[in-house]
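Lab notebook, design round three. We kept the backbone fixed and only want residue identities now. Task for the bench partner: fill in a sequence for the structure below.
Input structure tokens:
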């Protein structure tokens, strides 16, 4: 992991206290699953298993429930907005709190809130008390808990694995999430078909207990926190993180790619996939689950490739992956016209293509996180990961606009428009963001000279002081 440092390479006069070093167990053996040899990473990983399985079951059950109640693409988009808006608003705050407070505690509190929400939502369904506004309210609360959950877990990651295992660890998280996408989506579709949507939400609540337990067992040293306290210091710290992100080509480029990915690429996963399954292909909830499982299988394959190879030249790889995903989404959208023209057996064609979509889609955000983690000083890691909440806000706008566009001109045309925007945006960054294009993981992050505003914002004195005393 590259930390910010002065150009002269010398330690400043007043180093900050040393931060806990990342663990250095014997991980000399290369392999896809090398990070799983570390106890704390195994616990974090098991939490991801439980969290992702519950989340992906919900990704099938929630749109099916909304569509069953309303039959409206606009309502599907509206619930995504309700879920994403808190992730934007609280995500920025979460990044600051993760740097100022104990990161494990922040993660635990977010998980307790999510578990309570899952139990209450399942109870409303069982007792036939659920109304549409409850779904919107639950989406907003879940978005709030996720705003703290994701950056807290990612900020903990470099403290539980050695530097040279961070890409492997992030890719294993992604592989696990996509394995759960396969199992969770198929399980949700099967559960809804056999015992109804009520049973699916009960299962979601039970599964999420695993995330709470595994995090409670985690033993990790706290990080060095800023000395200043109070709302003013935290607000100033957020400003420091924004200035550092804007001044660092690696982070600036990664956040720009994530913005495009959230706004237009992920709309397939969160909005259009359900509409394709239920309106265009007419394959029902079980078919929807199968389609998402195939997408997840592609994503799992892509994540395992990344975990095994741990690519470093991400400045070129990331934009190319996004462009390839956009092209595949266009081809997929066009292929959904074929079954109507040539017969139902041709359903196999779009189902094969979603495998390719998943192959590229899974790794994009995982590698964005690797770039940010690699370029972020430890004491600023939570805030910089929290800045990705700005990009999640584009998911809000993309989902709202996507639902309205689909209702106006049809699902296929709306998806093609979004996919074209993905391709154009990715290629523009590849062509014009020259300094980001040279991003190599583990390489030295260029920084300003000591004493400059950017040097101070990055916490370079603390980073260099830790290096001098380690």
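Proposed sequence:
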């Amino acid at each position: 992991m590259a930390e910010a440092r002065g150009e002269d390479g010398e330690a400043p006069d007043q180093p900050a206290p040393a931060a806990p070093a990342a663990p250095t167990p014997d991980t000399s053996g290369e392999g896809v699953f090398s990070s799983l040899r570390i106890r704390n990473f195994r616990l974090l990983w098991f939490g991801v298993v439980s969290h992702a399985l519950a989340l992906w079951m919900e990704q099938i059950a929630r749109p099916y429930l909304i569509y069953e109640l309303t039959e409206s693409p606009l309502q599907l988009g509206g619930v995504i907005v309700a879920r994403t808006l808190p992730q934007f608003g609280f995500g920025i705050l979460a990044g600051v709190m993760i740097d100022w407070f104990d990161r494990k505690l922040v993660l635990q509190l977010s998980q307790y809130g999510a578990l309570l929400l899952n139990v209450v939502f399942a109870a409303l369904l069982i007792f036939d008390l659920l109304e549409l506004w409850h779904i919107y309210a639950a989406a907003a609360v879940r978005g709030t808990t996720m705003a703290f959950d994701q950056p807290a877990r990612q900020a903990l990651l470099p403290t539980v694995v050695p530097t040279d295992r961070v890409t492997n660890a992030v890719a294993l998280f992604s592989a696990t999430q996509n394995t759960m996408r396969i199992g969770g989506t198929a399980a949700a579709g099967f559960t809804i078909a056999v015992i109804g949507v009520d049973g699916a939400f009960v299962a979601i609540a039970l599964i999420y207990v695993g995330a709470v337990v595994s995090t409670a067992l985690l033993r990790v040293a706290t990080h060095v926190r800023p000395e200043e306290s109070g709302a003013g210091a935290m607000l100033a710290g957020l400003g420091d993180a924004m200035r550092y992100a804007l001044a660092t080509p690696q982070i600036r480029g990664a956040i720009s790619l994530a913005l495009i990915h959230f706004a237009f690429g992920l709309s397939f996963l969160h909005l259009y996939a359900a509409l394709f399954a239920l309106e265009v292909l007419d394959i029902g909830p079980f078919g929807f689950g199968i389609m998402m499982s195939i997408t997840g299988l592609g994503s799992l394959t892509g994540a395992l490739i990344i975990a095994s190879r741990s690519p470093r030249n991400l400045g070129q790889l990331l934009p190319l992956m996004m462009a390839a995903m956009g092209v595949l989404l266009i081809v997929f959208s066009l292929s959904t016209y074929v079954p109507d023209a040539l017969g139902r057996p041709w359903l196999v064609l779009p189902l094969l293509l979603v495998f390719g979509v998943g192959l590229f889609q899974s790794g994009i955000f995982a590698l964005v996180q690797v770039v940010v983690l690699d370029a972020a000083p430890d004491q600023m890691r939570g805030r910089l990961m929290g800045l990705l909440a700005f990009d999640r806000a584009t998911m809000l706008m993309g989902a709202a606009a996507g639902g309205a566009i689909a209702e106006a001109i049809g699902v296929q045309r709306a998806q093609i428009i979004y996919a074209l925007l993905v391709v154009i945006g990715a290629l523009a960054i590849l062509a014009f963001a020259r300094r980001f294009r040279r991003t190599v993981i583990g390489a030295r992050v260029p920084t300003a000279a000591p004493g400059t505003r950017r040097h101070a914002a990055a916490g370079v004195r603390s980073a260099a002081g830790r290096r001098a005393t380690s």
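Keep this in mind before ordering anything: The radius of gyration is 22 Å.
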